[in-house]
From TrEMBL:
Record-linked InterPro entries: MFS_dom, MFS_sugar_transport-like, MFS_Sugar_Transporters, MFS_trans_sf, Sugar_transporter_CS
Compartment(s): Cell membrane
Family per record: Belongs to the major facilitator superfamily. Sugar transporter (TC 2.A.1.1) family.
Protein name: MFS transporter
Signal peptide start-end: none
Record-level GO cellular component terms: plasma membrane
Alphabetical UniProt keywords: Membrane, Transmembrane, Transmembrane helix
PROSITE patterns cross-referenced by the UniProt entry: MFS (PS50850), SUGAR_TRANSPORT_1 (PS00216), SUGAR_TRANSPORT_2 (PS00217)
A family per Pfam: Sugar_tr
Length: 470
């Protein structure tokens, strides 16, 4: 346990001025808004392409492979961008990377307006949307650590969980806006480029944000960390967390000096070291197991439900999505009251059981199958909310970006695997066996979380990293 009272680094009042509680609360609202805006953009760019698919196919003479390349570009970009941005934010700082990342998105999004109609259009769009995905991947590994490092422990889970709601809202708003604009005769380039407007606003809003005190501490810049905390942070518990992180850092520096070594910079190899492998295995594995079944079932909802005799747009498209949003909202409301584990572990066991029943009970009544799928969507989304919370909490400050970036990237393997493997599995091993495999993935996640998921409710980041990283 970290004892924050030991820190002796003083606050230099001459270089840090008093600020009001109103100023500090407005800063937190601004920080939350700009990060949530980035997650909104993630859902938006994935959802906006749906309404204009027909126009793009006709105008550019796209075949199925070309359309798939364009649609999958952001997912591939997230896979690459998350770990790279995580490494960069741990090395160069949260503040510059948060702005650079949105600048990259802004440039790439604006480039959609200028896509030509010739033979190179497919390559242009695929590259552009890949770069947008790289930027969105950066949002996970930059914005998540930054928000967690400024959030009061009593609100941290709720604020991080809000990002998943923003993703769903972004996806749905993209469908609505895209459909309205397309029906009004708006060219598909302009429809895709609508993300540029919000990106420009977010880019301006991120200018002037301070550096994270936690990151400054990892670089030995304790005086700057205290000054920023004094100006921007209101929560006394957060001040305790920051001094606790300084205690831990100074202890590490003293141990390194005594042994004649240097403290290592963040690297992917450190994620699997004796100290940090538990955090890495848990966050990456849990995230993978949470999203793999959902992406498969939600993407092909109508086809899956038709196999069981109950299809239709409402049940497949709207029903599953609505229950997923309800599950996320429930978790966000309860996370800082009930804690993380109770919203993580039981739901996974329940979802594994639901999928197993669907897979084994081949002649179940269609209405029961529908109810089970809706229940799965609700409870799965509830614990998937924790994928936005745990990675930003359990890694120490000097690995928080790399750790969250790796977990996000690894989860995209699961998302892609679930999306692309489901049609093959249905055709080759049958729907029942496919659901049993999905149940096994959910079961693996349940076992992993039962074993490794910590309770982090109300605890400072210094306390969590001290207890979980050993």
């Amino acid at each position: 346990m970290i004892n924050p009272t030991k820190t002796t680094v003083p606050v230099d009042s001459s270089s840090s001025r008093e600020t009001s509680s109103t100023f500090k609360r407005r800063f937190m609202m601004r920080l939350v808004a700009v990060f949530i805006g980035g997650m909104f953009l993630d859902g938006y760019i994935l959802g906006i392409i749906g309404p204009v698919t027909g126009s793009m196919r006709s105008d550019l003479q796209l075949d199925a492979l070309s359309l798939g390349m364009i649609a999958a570009g952001p997912l591939a970009g997230i896979f690459i961008g998350s770990p790279l941005a995580g490494w960069a934010t741990d090395k160069f700082g949260r503040k510059p990377m948060f702005l650079v990342d949105m600048g990259l998105f802004l440039v790439a999004s604006g480039a959609q307006f200028f896509v030509t109609s010739g033979d190179g259009a497919v390559i242009q769009l695929a590259i552009i949307r890949f770069m947008m995905g790289v930027a969105i991947g950066g949002e996970y590994s930059i914005g998540g650590p930054l928000l967690s490092e400024f959030s009061p422990p009593k609100l941290r889970g709720r604020l991080l969980g809000l990002t998943l709601i923003a993703w769903y809202v972004g996806f749905m708003m993209a469908f609505i806006i895209g459909t309205l604009l397309h029906d009004a005769g708006t060219p598909w380039r302009l429809v895709l480029g609508t993300s540029t407007i919000l990106a420009f606003v977010l880019f301006l809003a991120r200018m002037g944000l301070p550096e994270s005190p936690s990151w400054l501490i990892t670089k030995g810049r304790h005086k700057e960390a205290l000054e920023i905390a004094h100006r921007y942070i209101e929560s006394p518990q957060m001040h305790d967390s920051i001094t606790g992180e300084m205690d831990l850092r100074m202890l590490q520096e003293a141990q390194a000096a005594e042994s004649g070594t240097k403290i290592k910079n963040a690297s992917f190899g450190m994620l699997f070291s004796r100290q940090y492998w538990r955090a890495t295995v848990f966050t990456a594995g849990f995230w993978f197991c949470a999203v793999t079944p959902y992406f498969a079932i939600a993407t092909f909802a109508d086809e899956v439900l038709n196999q069981f005799g109950f299809g239709g747009g409402w049940a497949g498209g709207v029903g599953l999505s609505a229950l997923a949003v309800a599950g996320v909202v429930t978790s966000v409301l309860l996370i800082d009251k009930l804690g993380r584990r109770i919203l993580t572990v039981p739901g996974q066991w329940l979802c594994a059981g639901i999928l197993l029943v669907i897979g084994v009970w081949g002649n179940a009544p269609a209405i029961l199958v529908l109810v089970l799928f809706l229940a799965f969507s609700y409870f799965n989304a509830g614990y998937t909310t924790m994928t936005q919370v745990y990675p930003a909490e359990v890694f120490p400050g000097h690995l928080r970006g790399v750790g969250m970036g790796f977990a996000a990237s690894f989860s995209r393997i699961g998302a892609a695997l679930g999306t692309f493997a489901l049609p093959w599995a249905i055709a080759n091993i049958g729907m029942g066996a496919t659901m049993v495999v999905a149940a096994a993935v959910a079961l693996l996640g349940a076992v992993l979380s039962q074993w490794l998921a910590p309770e982090t409710k109300g605890r400072t980041l210094a306390e969590i990293s001290a207890d979980f990283s050993h």
